[in-house]
Amino acid sequence: MNKNFKNNDFSDITFGRKSVRLYDENYKISHEEMLEMIQEATAAPSSVNMQPWRFVIVESEESKAKLKPLIRFNTRQNDTSSAMILIFGDLKNYEFGEEIYDQAVAEGKMPQEVRDQQIEAIIPHYKSFSKQEMNDVVKIDSSLAAMQLMLVARAHGYETNPIGGFEKDQLAEAFDLDKERYVPVMILSIGKAVEEGYESVRMNADKITTFK
Q1: From its phi and psi, is residue 82 left (phi > 0), alpha (psi between -120 and 50) or beta?
Q2: Residues 198, 29: contact at Cβ < 8 Å?
Q3: Is 202 inside a domain boundary?
Q4: Does an H or E element contain 142, and which?
Q5: 177 is in which domain, residue-wise?
C-alpha cells in the first residue's frame, strides 16, 4: 500500500483531473497490487453496507480484443492500458447480506443482536425494491467505489480514465455475467501514463452552489 494513502496523508497526491488516454502498453500491474487497490477502494460508503460493486479486470490480449468493439471511441485506452476495469452493480447484492454482517460480528464491529435486527429489516426491504429502485442504489454505491479507486490508483502511481461510452446492453454477457443481475456502471482504464493528459475546465464553485 502507498504509505501516504495508508496514513491518510494525501499531501503528495494531485487531485486535479487530467484525462489520460495513452499508457505504457508494456507495463503490467500484478494481481496482488490490483487486488490491494480494489480492497482499498471498497472502503467507500455503501448503503446499509451491502457492497453491490463487482469488478472484472480485462488484461489479456484475448479479453481486450473482446472488449474493443464494445467501447466505441475509447480504443486507445483499451490498446495501451495495463487493464480495463469493468465495474458492475449486483442487483441481488442482498444475497451476501448475512455473510457481510456475520463478518462484522466476528470482527467485533457489531453485536450479534444488532446483526439479527439489521438483517431481519434490511433483506426483506431490499428484496421489495423494483428493478429500477435497486438499479439506482447499485449505481450510486458502485460509482462511489469507482471514484475512490481512481484516487487509490493515483496514490499507487497510476493514472485512470473513466469511460461511460460503451455498449451497456452487451457488456455483461460478453464477460460471462448474467445481464439481468449485473448492471454495467462504468469502465476504468488504468496504467502508467505516457502523456500529460488533457486538461478540462470546471465551473466556479460559487456558480453551482447555493447556501440556505
Answers
A1: alpha
A2: no
A3: no
A4: helix 131-155
A5: 10-195
Interatomic CA distance for residues 69 and 187, integer angstroms: 14
Q: How far apart are CA 87 and CA 23, in angstroms?
A: 20
pTM: 0.89
Whether 101 maps to a domain, the answer reads yes
Task: Determine the angle formed by the axes of helices 31-41 and 131-155, rounding to 10 degrees.
Answer: 120
| 210 domain-assigned | no
Would you say 54 and 95 are in contact if contact means Cβ atoms under 8 Å apart? no
Length of the chain counted residue by residue: 212
pLDDT of 2 over the 80 cut: no
Q: For the domain that residue 31 is a member of, what is the CATH number?
A: 3.40.109.10
DSSP 94: G
Q: What percent of the chain has pLDDT over 90?
A: 85
- What backbone torsions phi and psi does residue 11 show, to the nearest 5 degrees? -65, -30
Note the Cα 146 to chain centre separation in Å.
Answer: 3
Mean pLDDT of 79-100: 98
Residue 212 maps to a domain: no
User: How far apart, in whole angstroms, are the C-alpha atoms of residue 9 and residue 12?
Assistant: 8
DSSP-assigned letter for residue 197: -
Domain count, the chain: 1
Evaluated on CA atoms 141, 144, 146, 152, the torsion sign reads negative
C-alpha distances out from residue 164 to 111, 130, 183, Å? 41, 24, 13
DSSP, collapsed to helix, strand or coil, labels residue 161 as strand
